[in-house]
Amino acid sequence: MQTTGDSTSVFAPGVRLLTIGLVSIVTLVAFESMAVATVMPLVEDDLGDLWLYGWVFTAFFLGNLVGAVIAGSAADRMRPAIPFAAGLLLFSAGLVVGGAASSMGMLVAGRVLQGVGAGAMPAISYVCIGRGYRPESRARMFALMSSAWVVPSVAGPALAGVIGATVGWRWVFLGLLPLCGVIGLIALLGVRTIETSHETAAASNVMRALQVALGAGLLLAGLQTSAPFVAVPVVLIGVLVLIPAFRSLTPEGTLRARPGLAATVLVRGLLGFAFFAADAYVPFAITTVRGLSATIGGLALTTATFTWTIASWLQARWVDRTGPRRLIVAGLLVIAGGSLSMLAVLVPAIPAWIGLGSWAIAGFGIGLAYAPLSLVTLAVAPKGEEGRATAGLQLSDMLGTALGTGVAGAVLTIAVRTFDSERVGLLAVFLISAAVALLGARLAHRVPARIHQT
């Protein structure tokens, strides 16, 4: 392992700049995530095309998985600062396209660029944590990165709601460009301290990552197609394209949830599916269906991110004592409870603001489960292949999230088309989220109960 200092503190002189850089870039991505999710109901009112609402999120996460695999593979061959800088540039370009979008389709294209960039930067961050920090410091670093969401989660929705209601939703994208320049420079100064791995790198997986994204895109496009004679073959082709590529990019036995690293990677995907399938539509339920403001809808995301951060800090204190498995199982069960409690928001007689507390429950759940899965992956990854292992984890994470938001969008579209009811669609979305969380909790028993950090 390539560490830059002897102290276990994440702010020790040898890693201080790296810590500041990684936390800063998480803050940037967090502001973007919270702001865009908050103003999406306003965007849909302006641009129309409700059937593409879910694709705004799905495109971002499909881009994420491509960026994560490409950057993780590149980090095993060159200095991590190079793919990190490329990701930052693509993220910035996506903001420009999104801010200038004249249609929902153009916005989706911009979100692909943002996604590739945003996928590359966390993958490189994981590599930097694996190479730059002592094992006993990694849990604290993951917790610190999670805490970087606090300020964006508090200020982001309110600020985005005000911007969207005054100067327009486009400035939610364009207004982040100056931050990209300042924060990007700080982050690059820290990441450049991490050197290339001296171990032999595995083969490049760029084409397979593109194959995964293509397969997932076809699968989700087929699900939203109204004509069965078109939908069925498109879905089948998507599955046939997706599965072989996914299997080649993840540990052997991932789809079978083989105990150990493979199960860890699969559960990460189910975690992303369960949480974000509902998360993408929480503001929609509160704003569009129940008629509250975009700011209130965004506050539901704020409460969830706040409890996510609290749980992340708690798991850092508990993981050595309880082991990762218990935290992961508990977190998934809590997410299921949060998704089910969101059903109350759909009842006209119940105040819509109850959604703020309901989704806070789910936020606490993902905070408990998320970082322990990362710790297990770093602990059991083959030496010199931290980039490939973490890229596989990120791939499963982003694919699960993309499929979750995409399936939720397809379900909502079908409900509106069939029943002319957004409530029916959201009912199905929250039930699917809870079901996948319960499945993840069951399979999480195959994640290592303890980890031995070396």
Describe this structure in a few short sentences.
The protein has helices at 16-47, 53-75, 81-99, 104-132, 135-147, 150-165, 170-174, 177-191, 206-223, 228-249, 261-279, 282-289, 294-322, 324-341, 354-380, 386-419, 422-443. With 454 residues, the chain is an all-alpha fold.
Outline the structure in words:
This protein is an all-alpha fold. The chain has one domain: MFS general substrate transporter like domains (Growth Hormone, Chain: A, Up-down Bundle), CATH 1.20.1250. The chain contains 17 helices and no strands. It has helices at 16-47, 53-75, 81-99, 104-132, 135-147, 150-165, 170-174, 177-191, 206-223, 228-249, 261-279, 282-289, 294-322, 324-341, 354-380, 386-419, 422-443. The longest helix has 34 residues, at 386-419. The model has no long low-confidence stretch (mean pLDDT 86). The chain crosses the membrane at residues 17-40, 52-74, 81-102, 108-129, 141-165, 171-194, 206-223, 229-249, 261-286, 292-315, 327-350, 356-378, 399-419, 425-444. One of its GO terms (molecular function) is transmembrane transporter activity.
